[in-house]
Amino acid sequence: MSALSPDDGRRRGSEGEPEVLPSEAWLVALAGLPEMGPVRLAALLQAWSPEEAWRQVCVGRAHVALVDARHGQRRRRSELGELGRVWAREAARSQVGATWRRHVEAGVGVAAPARASYPPPLLDDPARPPVLFHLGDPDVVAGARVAIVGTRSCTRYGSEVARGLGRDLADAGVAVVSGLAAGIDAAAHTGALEARGAPPIGVVGSGLDVPYPRQNASLWRRVAVRGVLWSEYPLGTRPAGWHFPSRNRLLAALADVVVVVESHRGGGSMHTVSEAQRRDVPVLAVPGPVTSPSSEGTNQLLFDGAGPARDVTDVLVHLGLSAAGTRSAAEQRAGPDPVAADVLDAVGWQPCTVDHLLVRTRLDLGELSLALDRLEAQGWVACQGGWIERVSRARR
Questions:
Q1: Which one-letter DSSP state was computed for residue 58?
Q2: Which is nearest to 382 in space by CA: 352, 342, 338?
Q3: Which of 1, 161, 210, 305 is the most buried (most CB within 10 A)?
Q4: Distance from CA of residue 86 to its chain's centroid?
């Protein structure tokens, strides 16, 4: 099949009909192109639908959406033209349907802004991601959320404080958000998992099958099982330096409060602080020894007027909560009946059909239809145009 074919990436059935793919499949393909970041992807999607954008990639014309009319110098146009040719060559080797099925089989959800699984706090963000990938339950963003950030090269003091804050916040029903990096991030989520309270939220800078750093692979899995793991990148994407500032904006955008435990004066956590300040998200800092380089950044934040985070109470006060009066979002939701719950799990977070669910659940059509009716009446799913989609409880 030619790379220029409108059926590119589609598998043909027994009668020669092309496989019908949801729009998310084309988003996955677009997001996996070389040098495709959220800004470029957003520009393509502003010009075309995901499937049409892929067609433009295949014919080598997608780069025209990236040319800024006000700064379209000849050199920039030339560079973007080469990028368009690179994308077209990559598209010729791509199998959109196979890539989509790989994500579905791995349990990776693909969330676009119009879909129920997309995090509500990001919908109106000035740097809203055009697509997000997730493992776990995206609905856990419904409750209060605190981002805990800090240096990778933390001290024992910083690690103990981050772990204690993560544990105490989760125990109070507040979801801990971090980038799952080494150091402070890992300590905070380790504490949150110890509490068995509010589900954790991780935001990472690589594909969800490429843990970074490698020693945190087990922590990634535990966060995905208990809460949710988010990424802007499809499976197989290796970490790159520019991914992490992009990730930091999501940490700030998802948080009701950002707490910096330890940071050098020029540490990456300061980028998260800047993104939080852009969004009017309160920033708290943990006081540290004035002789410790790891506390230079946090002590400077305090000097500049950030509130202190001496313990969990300081953080809860900024959230308007108390340790005794909070409950996790999971505790506040009533679940469907057992049969409907199994059907809901089978629906997942991607559009599917009744035929898909018959295979996944092995229920007969009558029992499946009744379960779907109950789920739709309770607001768990929406059925339209032959597709069944999960509805985010956080958005209702």
A1: H
A2: 352
A3: 161
A4: 27
